[in-house]
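Sat 14:20. Reprocessing the chain from the morning session after the first attempt stalled halfway. Input below, unchanged.
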Amino acid sequence: MLSVRRLLLPLYVPFKSPRHYFSLKKISMNNNGGFGPSGFVAPDVSSHGSTLRSFCTSKDLSAEKCVPCNRKGLSPMTEDSANALKPKVPEWELLSDGGVMKLRRKWKVKNFLLGLEFFKIVADLAESEGHHPDLHLVGWNNVTIEIWTHACGGLTQNDFILAAKIDKLPVESYLK
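Finished this time. Tokens:
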């Protein structure tokens, strides 16, 4: 008779953290743990060697990549910084919930099951970015997504990047 361990062993898939996937893509952090004075930084390799570039400098945030935000002492961006990035995600509402700044967007879906499928598409994107929003399905067709960086208790540039990427998802067929 086969042991339970032997039966379960082929089903085990080791979890790899988002940091592992970043290292596979050769994204390294600077001496400040990946966060410079102007925000997140990642290497920008040119013919002259490696230089650092600031995230969120392009017009299209959806072309950027979320970076790990597990640095101790990470602080949320100021309201002025958030207001400066807000025009890049015009469909999103900037709000303060108990002193915590968040991005929020609402949709109406055709039915309950399409709301769940909508969440699956967003969840796949969030997992690939290593940045996870709060997903709410209220009633049977009201979808709300709130984005904020839980590690610092407020907004970071990652939140705006994820919001821009969510805006590019092909979800029109789910919406009412």
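Residues 112-129 form the longest helix (18 residues).
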